[in-house]
Design goal:
alpha/beta, 9-stranded mixed β-sheet
Length: 336
């Protein structure tokens, strides 16, 4: 299995949502200071690219960004809250091989409360329904799992399965990117119980097709770390973070950073001022990567697990088989 470097492009800090676990919306960028699409031409070909924000559909030149990146990327992903349905469908129609994930935090009541956006779930759901009419097939919801929305997690998974779309998930963090230092899991016992049920459903996936089942098994493997977080208040130690090597971030000003999980932004260089190659080979970049290597935050980010699963596929395979056998034989398991 080949490792593909991921570039997460934060194209704006502007956002029309006011999420409880993310304060980006309190620190919006101005449209005129956001990186011109031409600078993305400096990025190498063959990356897995995630276009994110803030809310990337607030960029009036979002299609210009796709025009630059779509031919270069091995895979291009759009992370959006789904509010701007027509613009998203336009992207999907013109660039049908795009992976699109629409962020929700649960069903309507919980979603709109946590995301602070009126009728947010309605817009997200309508966007998914409209995307299903296009040739863009890699579509789905994504959810940031916490104790605040755990009650809706199982039903959100069942809804996604019924619709035949994906349900990607993440875990809430504190960092420079989210402008948060006070995210905390309060009701750990309840959240852990629901998370364990979520893992069980993923391992017993009823989705059609082996590819879809394998995706669920992979997500179950990732969620074991979230379960550990809920159970022990610290994320399961897995591997050395690959920030700056396996993945990197580009902020709206053109600054390249190794990750979005640190409490301060470790800037390696700026795309406006230097070539990508010069930035990544610079002494500043090497110092930033040293900070990553000595970081003890132990974040629960799927991008870290994805690269580990590619490098050492026998680890998730063994874990999946072991726990599926236990479930089939009704043997108790803590999914460790």
């Amino acid at each position: 299995m080949k490792n593909t470097i991921q570039a997460s492009l934060i194209v704006t800090f502007r956002c029309n949502a006011k999420c409880q676990m993310c304060d980006i919306w309190k620190y919006p960028t101005k449209a005129l200071e956001e990186l011109d699409p031409k600078y993305y031409e400096k990025l190498p070909d063959g990356l897995r690219i995630n276009i994110t924000g803030g809310e990337p559909m607030l960029r009036t030149d979002i299609e210009d960004i796709f025009k630059v990146l779509y031919p270069k990327a091995k895979l291009i992903e759009l992370s959006t809250n789904g509010f701007f349905t027509d613009k998203i469908v336009s992207i999907a129609t013109k660039y049908p091989n795009t992976l699109i994930r629409v962020s929700v935090e649960g069903l309507p009541a919980i979603n709109d409360k946590i995301r602070g956006i009126e009728n947010g779930f309605d817009h997200a759901f309508r966007t998914i329904l409209e995307l299903k009419k296009t040739k863009c097939k890699n579509i789905g919801f994504s959810v940031v799992i916490s104790d605040k929305n755990a009650d809706d997690l199982i039903n959100l998974y069942k809804l996604s399965s019924y619709l035949g779309v994906e349900l990607a998930n993440a875990f809430m963090h504190n960092s420079w990117y989210f402008h948060k230092a006070d995210n905390v899991v309060e009701n750990t016992d309840k959240a852990a119980k629901i998370e364990a049920e979520f893992i069980r459903l993923l391992l017993q996936s009823r989705r059609s097709g082996i590819r879809n089942k394998l995706k669920d098994y992979g997500r179950a493997y990732f969620n074991r770390g979230i379960l550990k977080n809920f159970s022990k208040t610290t994320c399961m130690s897995r591997i050395q973070c690959g920030g700056g090597k396996d993945f990197f971030f580009v902020d709206p000003f053109g600054n390249i950073s190794p990750c979005n999980g640190s409490m301060e932004q470790w800037i390696m260089g700026n795309l406006k001022e230097s070539s990508f190659e010069d930035i990544m080979n610079s002494q500043v970049a090497k110092e930033a990567i040293k900070k990553v290597e000595s970081c003890d935050k132990n974040c629960c980010f799927v991008v870290t697990d994805r690269h580990d699963m590619v490098r050492r596929p026998w680890k998730p395979l063994y874990w999946v088989v072991k726990n599926k056998v236990k479930l089939a034989l009704n043997i108790p398991t803590d999914f460790s």
